Known about the structure:
Number of strands: 24
Strand order of the largest sheet: 3-2-4-1-10-9-11-14
Bound molecules: fructose -6-phosphate
Radius of gyration: 26 Å
Strand content: 15-25%
Helix content: 25-40%
Structural class: alpha/beta
Number of helices: 19
Shape: globular
Amino acid sequence: xxxxxxxxxxxPATPIILEGLKKLEYRGYDSSGVAVLDKDGLKVxxxxxxxxxxxxxxxxxxxxxxxxxxxxxxxxxxxxxxxxAHPHTSNDGKxxxxxxxxxxNYLQLREWLTSRGHVFKSETDTEVIPHLIEHFYKGDxxxxxxxxxxxxxxxxAIMAISVDQxxxxxxxxxxxxxxxxxxxxxxFLASDIPALLKYTRNCYLLNDGDVVELRADQVVxxxxxxxxxxxxxxxxxxxxxxxxxxxxxxxxxxxxxxQPRALRDTLKGRISHKGDKVILEExxxxxxxIKGIKKIVITACGTAYHAGLVGKYVIEQxxxxxxxxxxxxxxxxxxxxxxxxxxVVVVSQSGETADTLAALREARRRGARVVAVTNVIASxxxxxxxxxxxxxxxxxxxxxxxxxxxxxxxxxYLLALYLAxxxxxxxxxxxxxxxxxxxxxxxxxxxxxxxxxPIKEFAEKYSQHEDAxxxxxxxxxxxxxxxxxxxxxxxxxxxxxxxxxxxKHGTLALIxxxxxxxxxxxQQSLFxxxxxxxKEVKARDARVIALAMEGHTExxxxxxxxxxxxxxxxxxxPILTVIPLQLLAYYMAVYxxxxxxxxxxxxxxxTVE
Length: 609
Ligand code: F6R
């Protein structure tokens, strides 16, 4: 995810673009840049790091250009660096482009352009765009952009400026957000409305394929067929903070709803065309090294640790290698038994958690190979690990982790299947079966999100209770732990997760009349056992909401309420099961009047011990 901003008017463009980029930093922040057109031509400045680095680089410069484009980046193709930062320019240095999205056929295009003498400076997919525009430019930037996008496969919001037509920006979108802001004698473009709100509340919302020609006193929009279209003005009525949340009441809810997109993005490019193999380009182990793994240790904190627990069940089941999961703050001090035949997997959304980083260093010091699963490019964990699996959740703002967790689960599945394929522990057909299902999971995740009414109802009914219990077996137990953490951290309800079979060894004493119990029963092989456990708590008059897979209607006989998740392969169920639990925690917290995005005493990134 990246953010783009454009300005054409009579005020200095750079401060307006920087202001807009600040509002879009939530979309990505590993590098940023601007390109402006003034009387001397095209000027580009770009810097790796937060926006403050770009501001420093621009400090003291004369900023009188009144046309420009800017970008804040969250790297996909090409690591974060000054060179890979946007804007990118054409061979002749006359055209500059910013882009949010992914150009899937960039390698072919790059080869084709190289064979025609174009020289590339960066490792990005984006750089083919200014080169193509230059190739097609015959005096009309709109036409050159239209021809360029007809050769692009993928998703994009693109803005281009050219020295030869210095009074305009030409922009186009396909599957990526882009809005036009309408001013008096000035006009704007941005990925998202918050970047515009300081200047205007009048917008044009664009459709896929729309091409915008933006000038100070005129905005012309052509549809995919090239026909000029008249758009209705959309008047923004939300305040700036509401706008950043994209219409949701809280970042947490927005991020919960972003999960279908995040799941898809995390899988992009990682399943072979035939759909039968996992491709993990960031893993550099040789086949011998993979075959030589004797033990896997997964270490992490909090929600990431819970993703690791799912990883243990899945890897042990599919790869038959013993897996230990350890809390990073324990691992580093318990003199762990690991050596060169141990694969250590560290999981960290931020990639900066002090304990996880220390665990990584301890593992490497003892000779283990370390794979990092992280959401932040070039984070400390990513830089120090031997191999990386990036999750493409996009920046997570809410303290309570949601989309990072489900994408970490995707990373666990990909790793397990990758190891299984190299160690021949699964038949090719079985790998394909799980991959087919994994590819479609985002649709089912959307179905779960669309069915939130009963969860909201349960939350309203039980939000004033001070205790809650989560029970499950196998993978459901791992998910129960995550559900209970979510509830604790944002609603301050005392919640505990138990392996359902363990209840009668002590905890059953706490089950009293009306206490809410969330029973996870999605695993076919453990279903009957779970039904018995639900009966146990019902016999103590608990109020049970059960989560089961579609078709398992038997559970209705024992639970007070049932939420069904769509049918999927049992190992993949956690991704769907956790979504109602996230929503439950969210609505419980809302009904209790808690500060959902910033729970008391907690920080998003724990960089101290
Ligand atoms: C809970 C939560 C935390 C983090 C933990 C690790 O919702 O977000 O438990 O999962 O602090 O953080 P990362 O993944 O950044 O290492």
